[in-house]
């Protein structure tokens, strides 16, 4: 257990990560270079400097702020030490002793990019690209930035993503477009990005990450992965429980839960509403007035908050997630103490835009995929997708542009955030089923009604909540690129331990053959 250090809340100012500028810009796009380095940073007034790994030696990494369709080239480089400072479990697939300890690969989460630039978990590289993984293809990634939304970039290395990310490798990547700019939403200093994570600390300020779930269990390897691990402080933009001084006016908050595994339900203690305008995939059709917003890890919410009637007040952004430990029920504080600099002319429009939703009849196939929990050879819980391991044959091969419905049958005991790379998902419904019956017979017996997506899920998503005991159905069009990608649970302690599978988007077959196949199926 970490030596619990009692840290005072709301004593550090919320940092705003710097925006990164391109090294050059030409007709083809903008070119950036980012180097991962080790460094130290104070994460709380009363905490010694913490050793971290960060993109360009920053935690969080620098923010990319680009326009839609402006191609971004990034050369991701690794200048990290050759020893990891967090406990590696070498019994996990992809983290074996024979591999270099410190490997990295960067994934732009929610981005639509070709496979060579998607940060495949086995496309890792070490310091100065001295060694590279079997699927490594290139040093410079190319991001076409096809939609306006808040993305983030983070490490995705096979078997050690949870450790690399915990060490600090994560940052925002914002894509904007003209339409969004025409809506007159709060902007500039009135738009605040919040990268929320949980972290634990040792007394000297170093990061605490457990080496084993159970010291006394001799069957376990050491170190051994710990599933799940929820840390005991909340860190926003690299400070523990920070505060921010705001004016009495509207703000746009872009909230990202970037915890390893923790789910967070955000709520303001003033009781005022959060007007959610966007999901992971950008703006919804209209704002939704929310009392609280649940974000599983990696989910994002785009939110407008109005502090205009709160001058002089301090408002705490809480975490009211059921079962959150008492310390972690606070996230950060807004002090509405800065006098208004000018009239607030920004707006919260009634209509935000239009989304072309998919309909069930467009789907050419429904796939049933289980999320289940078994035990591994050491007796540890092991969560699997479709009962398969990472190295099993690729079973999801889908032709480019094909629309499918996936039913995620969750007979495990966790609510898993399921993420597909490059593919937009639209939630259709969630329906409870008899888990014991399913486990005994393999047949679904529903025990309640199918519920439509929540009001704030009525847009596309790149990660969806698949609750335990429910069948969660989504529809998706597989594209826009062909190649090999991954889908996985985004709880990093699950993802690293087999809850990730490759899938493949294949080139379109001959069109006529396709049409005939469809016709005859009807
Ligand atoms: Cu945010 Cu495959 O990940
Ligand atoms: Cu999971």
TrEMBL record:
Pfam families for this protein: Cu-oxidase_2, Cu-oxidase_3
Domain Plastocyanin-like residues, every copy: 103-179, 386-506
CDD domains the record matches: CuRO_1_BOD_CotA_like (cd13844), CuRO_2_CotA_like (cd13868), CuRO_3_CotA_like (cd13891)
Region forming the signal peptide: none
Family: Belongs to the multicopper oxidase family.
Protein name per Swiss-Prot or TrEMBL: Multicopper oxidase
Organism: Paenibacillus hodogayensis
Classification of source organism: Bacteria, Bacillati, Bacillota, Bacilli, Bacillales
